[in-house]
Amino acid sequence: MTEPLVSIILVTYNHAAYVRDAIAGIFAQDVSFGHEILICEDCSTDGTREMVVTLQQEHPERIRLFLTERNQNDNDVFTRAWQVARGRYIAYLDGDDYWTDPGKLGKQVAFLEQHPEVFVCGHAVRQIDHTGKVLKESKFDIYSDVELSPEVMASGLGCPLPALSVLFRNNGRLPPSRVFNKVFNADTFMFAFFANFGGGFVSREIMGVHRVHPGSVWSLLDDKRSADLRNSTIRRIPRVITPRLRAVSYWGLLQHSRFEDYRLSRKLRDIPVAVVMMAVWLRWQSALFLVPPRYQKWVRAAWRLFHSKDAPLHA
């Protein structure tokens, strides 16, 4: 059997009303390379499991099925497929979202082939409700192409990369399960982890749809619970970040604590830790990202003083 170039991981739970759209968008991809579909079904109770089992039986050469014995509601549902994905690239999709452009995968593969410094790419997506009404023409307001430096990604903040849009390089490296399975904002954590290997790129072209509906996980959370879970995610990011970028990940914790967190007790805990650890892990590569613009010329001058004239300073 020919090895697939792209592995498409579809994660679904209680998406019976929507998963056909997701599958249709995958099947509609007009590509000249081999690809496989890995469906991760998390013990649905609404008939989703029966639907994907039937699909796999109809397309055994294209679909590999991963069924949980009980509802896990953790990131292991996704990583089980990630660990065995055979493609050079991996695309991700939730069962209640879908792709709208048949050329999506082809365009993204071509981009990554031409830009080896980019580890993950994505694109703009439209946001709709469960009736199909457009809530936002472009989620995250992506109206121009966006280049994402490793520093921006490692911070865990300000990374406009819709999860359903991503295609990333399959280098066999996964975040440690003991950490990854404890975070709720899996996409934020995963994109930060990707910073270890390169930057990101987001195309302004709308090639998919993100659906907001009463059964989606985030819609069931109030603002304080969302903030609690986001804090837990941001605090764990430094554990998986390479030393050259770790100061940036602690900067992300500092910014989150100062401007987003509502609990004073967490601020008193996280802010001192973030400041100290930023100083401990500060490296030349992240210096320009962390210092105010008016001081950046001094950082550059210091770099040139202690390194060869042509040595690059990545920021």
What does this 3D model show about the protein?
With 315 residues, the chain is α/β, with parallel strands linked by helices. The protein folds into two domains: 6-219, Spore Coat Polysaccharide Biosynthesis Protein SpsA, Chain A; 223-282. 40% of the residues lie in helices and 20% in strands. It has helices at residues 19-27, 48-58, 76-84, 104-114, 150-155, 177-180, 186-194, 223-236, 243-259, 264-281, 284-290, 296-306, and strands at 6-12, 35-41, 63-67, 89-94, 98-99, 118-129, 134-136, 146-148, 167-169, 199-212. Strands 1, 2, 3, 4, 5, 6, 7, 8, 9 and 10 form a ten-stranded mixed β-sheet that branches. Helix 9 packs parallel to helix 11 (284-290). The longest helix has 18 residues, at 264-281. The protein is globular. It starts with 5 loop residues before the first strand and ends in a 9-residue tail after the last helix.
Coarse structural class: alpha/beta
User: Could you tell me the number of beta strands?
Assistant: 10
Low-pLDDT runs: none
What is the overall silhouette? globular
How helix-rich are the residues, as a percent range? Answer: 40-55%
Q: Do you know the CATH architecture of the largest domain?
A: Alpha-Beta Complex
Distance between the termini: 43 Å
Question: What's the tally of helices?
Answer: 12
Please write the string of helix (H) and strand (E) elements: EHEHEHEEHEEEHEHHEHHHHH
CA-based gyration radius: 20 Å
